[in-house]
Design a protein that fits this description.
alpha+beta; 4-stranded antiparallel β-sheet; 1471 residues; 9% strand; 48 helices
Length: 1471
């Protein structure tokens, strides 16, 4: 209890998962018996049915309703419940004395009072701990950090809260103890008692007296697992129908009060005044200090109590006697209480899903199972958090229908699903199959023979338990979220019980059969820490989980699901079932059915039993009869004389239970006339009553002579199989001299098939032995005939169709180890003897100095005739080939070009295998020396090739000169020469690249080639740097242009579009456009074609020409597309309404029309349509391909690329974008824009105004955003507008052009916006102070005048610039002029002093004036505020001032570098 629990749950290992084939799945018990050796070692296993096995869900959902159990998670865990019980006792102790318990906090966490109480008791008690100063050790054991004086706090809390309770429990004298009052800290959290006994308010049904009892007189079935019905019937613990254990006498705790002389009073005389006399002192004075007990109405003075009370306590108060009585009551057995609400499947599912989604704050299907598992074990182990769930468990399928279809049921199955009615995996059929022992139990037992239904929700759990009678169980999850299982193997059952008893002894003291009540769980990690093997699995919908006999299992539900479970028993369970009855007898626990009755029922049908079951029943019945005989003889020796025969088959189980151990009696029972309704089994004769044994009566079902025929019938059925099995076992275990032949084993197989013996392991083993023997005999015959087939193929490393000597020995041993004799075995043994004789002769010959060739040749011939692979043959042949080896070495030395390292090693390897000889050794020494030198230079050449950093060319050439003198072929040295030659060629190509601007592909190819040359190449670093800079430039350009999550590439955005319009019609439109165009040699129909042409272009001019051709195709295709889309909105019949938008439906409701492609879109289909600003052109998702950054962000990209001096398609495309943008700006400046329609009247465009409603085929629609009609624009204006919209750069000129054209048709709606845009446009175009027209000169004349003025100023600027001595980047850096710092208030005051009319019309208002000097010339001034605002002046031709923050220039850059504004940079490019 002192070890701290792990903070996070660690899942145990997974249990086995089996996936049977259809053939295996056809026999349920056969498959379970097959996997039992593996699965019973883990206790549980999971079975996935074959694909396609999906039974229909047959439960009557509309009729199903149930009342679930309430589960409070932290009360389920054993150790947590112990703590809660302890805290409830402490709280009750103080509550009865008028105080409220508050849990203190130490080191910012709640103090565990239970652990503190236990640790102090383990250390010897409060006095010992204080005397020996062990509080620091206790603090460390509780997990507190050392060195923080926590021990003193623990002592204070123990002395204040726990020590009075300890003294009270010990019954010690409280005279010298502290006052039992609580002085709580205001930060302490008040403890609210869980009040576990008071919440067990659900009484079991009167008929529900034993666990899962079958009612023979009624058709109903139910489950309850409570103890015996108590006479006083106190409040029940919350569990599934559990009742309290027997009440124990109240522990009397001595209570001391002050003893004072009291005058005796006459008996029977007690006046009302005497009723309020102090029982301690006998006096009635000091009535204001007289306390009246709220339990027994006894009176005590506050100063007569031990210890005395200074004040009257608040709330209820109990006297010492009542306090001892209340705190000494035994704990009530724990159980689950029933919910107050009745659910249907639908309402429970809604509640379950809502709970899980609210708890995890995410959809139920998205919560990971691992998260739910860890959270479950955290909740059950915490005291602070109370989470309550409900579980619809043990719902009788007989009342509402099983989830599986049944015959003659209300659910009608389809013809193709009728196979599920009789399937063995149908849980209604499995318990009553022929191979199931439960078939012979006459009663219908819910949960064992009839399935139970389980409706779970998140965190609802089933606690650690084993099945009734230690039977198998099978659970099928019909649907819903997974169910998590934990299991322990059956052999660890007693170990698990002992561990839980040791970790929570308090629970087992009040409930010895706690683990049989299904109300307690314990963390699997805790059990695993104590050496228990625990396994887990997640059962998903459509999967089975099987638990094996006496395998403890528990788990919880991941969410809303529906499962069904039932028990079954096979023949191997029979001995465990009888062992379980003895275990129940020791625990005084009820039985679900009588094991003896079931055994007798099986024996009565001996003729139809399967042999395996008959054999198991024979052994079980033999044990039963022997035990019954001994018990009856013992009863007779005790003086029992009376006996009578009773038919226990007709009596209900409740009327034939032993009064002591509650075992259901069947063969015999003892009764006494003094209590005819009570009986005991023969094991507890002395516990019946106080009458003498001679007055008892022995009630028996069968006499011993009547049991013998039943036993003989079963034995005769099983003995034939046993005789056969004994004979088989005798043959299999026979020694070498007594072995039978193969034919005799075959006859046993024939006998088993004739008598239809079951497919047991013994029969399968016999078949396997016969198969092995037949295979060995066949191979032996082939060896003797010379036609055997071995594992070797012709041409392999060994001789084909030959066995090695070792394999021959193993095969002969294998023949003699078979349980039967093989007639070929002696012949193979003789062959082995000849082989061993040859080996002996060979070893004698090879031991000589130099034997004669005739002797060697004779041995070689003898070995070849044996037809066995002999290693001596190779040695003999090597002895003949020694001379040949020496000649081969000499010949190789004469041809250095062919003498490679492999050749030398091969010759050396051949020489090593030869018999030692002087000539061989000398030749070997010379060859070894040459090999050593060659290997040294090969390694050195290899190191040079792999050196980091690489060697220079000069170093490598020096090494090559030394290698030329070695008479051998060295691959690494040859490779070294090749690398040097390749390096020289690469350097020539790299030097050639430096003289011109290379393509990125050329650089990448050179860098790639250079990385494959292991030579130091000086130009490589420069080329790699160039490639890295280009890649960084491409990333920067992509961030500038590409939209978030854009599907377009950077080149696709920068190049003019090769295709326009919807995807399905692009090919047709491009084809139509290409007809009238001039035929070109280069195909430019896709982005791939454009990229290929740009990558192969010789210079920038050809690239610009290519992009100009693509632009021309783009404009022509877009023109056709705009005309086509605009024609869709002409007046057509409603039946011919076009399909528009991304959804390809007719127009309806609010619509948006793209200004570029003129296609229409539903406002709901376009994301972010609410962010559209009035007066700005709206582009559809297909036309808006980039972010359209401002020009001042694009120009630095081109400048940075020019500095890199590398050509790439994206760079040419960007240059073309800028040139196209500049040309468009000049075109805009040359055109005057009228603000009025040629007719002099502003008019609305058809389908544009938001107030105009248009009719479609399915309803009316209207346009949210006005568009400029095609018919009312000149070709020049339309081309200019389309060209501006196609630009991937954001320009104020485009906004002004669009606003002017839009005001031409809708002046009433956009007049204000147009004026604002005109103002911005003028500022953008005029870098000098604006000379505006007078207020009365408006309209078209004003615009023309302004345009003329701008043209003049631009021409002047060009003339001024031509007079400059050189390009602006070649200028001598001039000192920056910092504008005086001016705060916002000063600027506002100066602006107020200058009238707008004067500032616009005064001719003296020049560039050097203070007023213009205080205005930022940036297009989008951010109007910075503050005490200090930094400025920078353009070093180009305009000399205008800008806020540094508005143009992105830091103070350091402004001091140290030239700043050129966007306008001047554009002018430089155009000139």
């Amino acid at each position: 209890m002192t070890n701290s629990r792990p903070n996070e749950f660690i899942p145990p290992p997974e249990c086995p998962v089996f996936e049977p084939s259809w053939e295996e799945f056809a026999d349920p018990f056969g498959f379970i018996n097959k996997i039992r050796p593996i699965a019973e070692n883990t206790g549980i296993c999971k079975i996935r049915p074959p694909p396609g096995w999906q039974p229909p869900f047959a439960c009557d959902v509309d009729r199903l309703h149930f009342t679930p159990r309430i589960q409070r998670l932290n009360e389920l865990e054993a150790q947590t419940r112990v703590k809660l019980n302890f805290l409830d006792q402490i709280a009750k102790f103080w509550e009865l004395q008028g105080c409220t318990l508050k849990i203190p906090h130490v080191e910012r966490k709640t103090l565990d009072l239970y652990v503190l109480y236990k640790l102090v008791n383990e250390e010897g008690g409060f006095d010992v701990v204080c005397k020996e100063r062990r509080w620091t050790q206790i603090a460390l054991r509780m997990g507190f950090a050392p060195g923080k004086a926590v021990g003193s706090h623990l002592r204070a809390h123990y002395e204040r809260i726990l020590y009075p309770y300890y003294l009270f429990q010990a019954g010690a004298n409280l005279m010298n103890s502290q006052k039992p009052t609580l002085t709580n800290d205001t930060k302490d959290k008040e403890y609210k008692s869980h009040d576990l006994p008071q919440r067990q308010s659900v009484q079991p049904a009167e008929t529900c007296t034993i666990a899962r009892r079958a009612k023979r007189t009624e058709g109903r079935c139910f489950k309850s697992e409570q103890g015996e019905v108590c006479e006083n019937k106190p409040n029940l613990r919350r569990r599934m129908g559990s009742c309290v254990a027997k009440t124990e006498p109240v522990k009397e705790i001595p209570v001391q009060v002050k003893q004072e002389p009291v005058e005796p009073t006459a008996e029977g005389e007690k006046s009302k005044v005497e009723q309020y006399m102090c029982l301690a002192c006998g006096g009635g004075g000091d009535e204001d200090r007289l306390l009246l007990c709220d339990g027994c109405d006894d009176s005590y003075h506050t100063f007569c109590l031990i210890p005395p009370l200074h004040d009257v306590p608040k709330g209820d108060w109990r006297c010492p006697k009542c306090l001892a009585q209340e705190c000494g009551k035994p704990q009530v057995a724990f159980g689950f209480e029933q919910a107050s609400r009745d659910y249907t499947l639908r309402t429970f599912g809604d509640m379950a899903d809502s709970f899980k989604s609210d708890y995890f704050n995410m959809p139920v299907h998205m919560v990971p199972t691992e998260l739910v598992e860890k959270e479950f074990w955290r909740l059950v182990s915490t005291i602070e958090e109370d989470v309550t769930v409900e579980y619809g468990a043990d719902i009788a399928s007989k009342d509402f229908g099983s989830g599986f279809p049944v015959k003659n049921g209300t659910f009608k199955v389809a013809p193709e699903e009728e196979a599920y009615l009789s399937s063995g995996w149908n849980l209604n059929n499995m318990p009553v199959l022929d191979a199931s022992v439960l078939t012979h139990v006459t009663a219908d037992i819910c949960g064992m023979k009839l399935p139970w239904l389980y409706v779970g929700m998140c965190f609802s759990s089933f606690c650690w338990h084993i099945e009734d009678h230690w039977s198998y169980s099978i659970n099928y999850l019909h649907w819903g979220e997974p169910k998590t299982w934990y299991g322990a193997p059956g052999y660890a059952a007693e170990q698990l019980e002992n561990v839980m008893k040791n970790l929570a002894p308090e629970l087992f003291e009040s409930q010895p059969d706690l683990l049989h009540q299904l109300v307690t769980i314990m963390n699997p990690n805790v059990l695993m820490d104590h050496g228990l093997p625990i396994y887990r699995t997640n059962q998903c919908a459509g999967e089975f989980v099987i638990t094996f006999p006496r395998a403890y299992h528990s788990g919880f539900n991941q969410g809303f699901n529906f499962a069904e479970a039932v028990n079954f028993c096979t023949a191997d369970w029979m001995p465990l079932g009888r062992q379980c009855i003895d275990h129940y007898r020791s625990l005084n626990r009820y039985c679900v059915f009588s094991h003896d009755e079931m055994t007798c029922n099986i024996a009565a049908k001996a003729d139809s039993l399967e042999l395996e079951l008959a054999s198991a029943v024979q052994k079980d019945m033999s044990t039963m009869i022997q035990e019954e005989k001994e018990l009856r003889e013992q009863a007779y020796k005790m003086g029992l004389w009376h006996s009578q025969q009773v038919d226990y088959d007709v009596l209900p189980d409740e009327e034939r239970q032993c009064a002591k151990c509650r075992t259901t009696c069947y063969l015999s029972a003892i009764t006494c006339p003094c209590s005819p309704d009570q009986l005991v089994c023969l094991h507890h004769i002395q516990d019946l009553c106080a009458c003498p044994v001679s007055s008892y009566t022995l009630n028996y079902k069968y006499t011993l002579s009547e049991l013998n025929p039943l036993f003989q019938a079963v034995a005769s059925r099983a003995e034939s199989y046993d005789d056969w099995a004994s004979k088989v076992n005798e043959i299999l275990k026979a020694n070498q001299d007594n072995k039978s032949d193969l034919e005799e084993l075959r006859s046993l197989i024939v006998e088993a098939e004739k008598k239809m013996y079951p497919e047991t392991d013994l029969l399968n083993h016999l078949r396997q032995i016969i198969q092995n023997a037949e295979r060995s005999a066949s191979m032996a015959q082939q060896l003797l005939n010379g036609k055997r087939q071995t594992r070797y193929r012709s041409g392999g490393g060994k001789s084909p169709n030959q066995l090695t000597v070792e394999e021959l020995k193993l095969f002969v041993n294998q023949l003699y180890e078979l349980p039967c004799t093989i007639r070929q075995a002696p012949f193979l043994k003789a062959l082995l003897s000849r082989v061993e004789q040859f080996q002996q002769q060979s070893s004698d010959l090879l031991a000589e100095d130099m034997p004669g060739s005739s002797a060697i040749q004779g041995l070689l011939d003898e070995g070849a005739s044996l037809d066995v692979e002999l290693p001596q043959l190779a040695v003999l042949r090597q002895r003949l080939e020694q001379a040949r080896w020496v000649e081969a070495v000499q010949q190789a030395s004469e041809q250095p070009a062919s003498l490679s390292l492999d050749c030398m090693r091969r010759l050396i390897d051949q020489g090593v295998g030869l018999v030692p000889h002087a000539c061989v050794e000398r030749t070997m020494a010379r060859l070894q020396e040459l090999l050593t030198v060659c290997e040294h230079w090969e390694e050195k050449a290899h190191n040079m090739l792999t050196a980091r950093p690489h060697h220079s060319i000069d170093t490598l050439e020096a090494a090559i000169q030394e290698v030329d003198n070695i008479p051998a072929f060295l691959p690494n040295c040859v490779q070294l020469k090749d690398c040097v030659n390749r390096a020289k060629e690469w350097i020539k190509e790299a030097d050639a690249v430096g003289g011109r601007i290379p393509f990125l592909s050329t650089l990448s190819e050179l860098v790639s080639r250079a990385r494959g040359i292991p030579v130091m190449l000086e130009p490589l670093t420069r080329l790699e740097s160039l490639v890295s800079e280009v890649q960084a430039w491409k990333e920067s350009a992509a961030k500038t242009f590409l939209l978030r999550n854009s599907s377009h590439s950077l080149l696709e955005v920068l190049c003019p579009r090769c295709e326009t319009g919807p995807q399905k019609s692009r090919s047709k439109k491009v084809k139509d456009v290409s007809l009238p165009c001039k035929k070109v040699d280069v195909k430019l129909d896709s982005l791939f074609d454009v990229e290929r042409v740009l990558s192969t272009s010789k210079d920038t001019a050809s690239a610009m020409a290519t992009l100009a051709d693509v632009r021309q195709k783009e404009l022509e295709s877009l023109s056709i597309l705009r005309t086509s889309n605009e024609a869709n909105f002409q007046s057509l019949p409603s039946c011919l309404a076009p399909t528009v938008c991304l959804c390809h439906t007719v127009p309806a409701g609010p619509m948006l029309q793209c200004e570029l492609c003129r296609d229409a879109y539903h406002s709901g289909c376009v994301p972010g349509f609410k962010d559209i600003q009035a007066g700005q052109p709206w582009l559809c998702p297909l036309c808006k391909r980039s972010e359209k950054p401002p020009l001042d962000k694009v120009l630095p990209l081109l400048a940075s690329l020019q500095r890199i001096r590398v050509r790439l398609p994206e760079g040419d495309a960007l240059r073309y974008v800028i040139e196209r943008t500049v040309r468009w700006q000049h075109s805009v400046q040359q055109i005057s824009l009228p603000t009025q329609h040629p007719n002099g009247k502003a008019r609305h465009i058809s389908g544009i105004a938001s107030s105009q409603i248009l009719e479609g085929s399915k309803g009316s629609y209207y346009m949210l955003q006005p568009c400029i009609p095609l018919g009312d624009l000149s070709a020049e204006l339309e081309e200019l507008l389309v060209e501006g919209l196609l630009l991937q750069v954001n320009l104020p000129e485009l906004q002004h052009l669009y606003s002017s054209l839009l005001n031409r048709f809708t002046p009433s709606q956009h007049s204000l916006q147009s004026s604002e845009h005109d103002h911005q446009y003028h500022i953008a175009q005029d870098r000098s102070p604006p000379h505006r027209s007078p207020p009365h000169s408006k309209g078209q004349d004003g615009v023309l005048e302004t345009k003329k003025e701008k043209v003049e100023k631009n021409s002047k600027r060009r003339l001024e610039k031509e007079n400059l001595e050189g390009h602006y980047r070649d200028k001598i850096k001039k000192p920056k002029k910092k504008k005086p710092k001016m705060n916002k208030e000063r600027r506002r005051e100066e602006k107020r002093t200058i009238s707008p009319s004067n500032s616009l019309s005064d001719p003296s208002y020049s560039e050097d004036s203070e007023e213009d000097w205080s205005v930022c010339s940036a297009k989008r001034c951010q109007q910075p505020e503050g005490n200090e605002v930094n400025w920078v002046q353009c070093d180009g031709s305009c000399n205008q001032w800008f806020h540094q923050i508005c143009v992105g220039v830091s103070a350091e850059q402004a001091e140290n570098e030239d700043y050129i504004c966007v306008s001047c940079a554009i002018n430089d490019l155009t000139e």
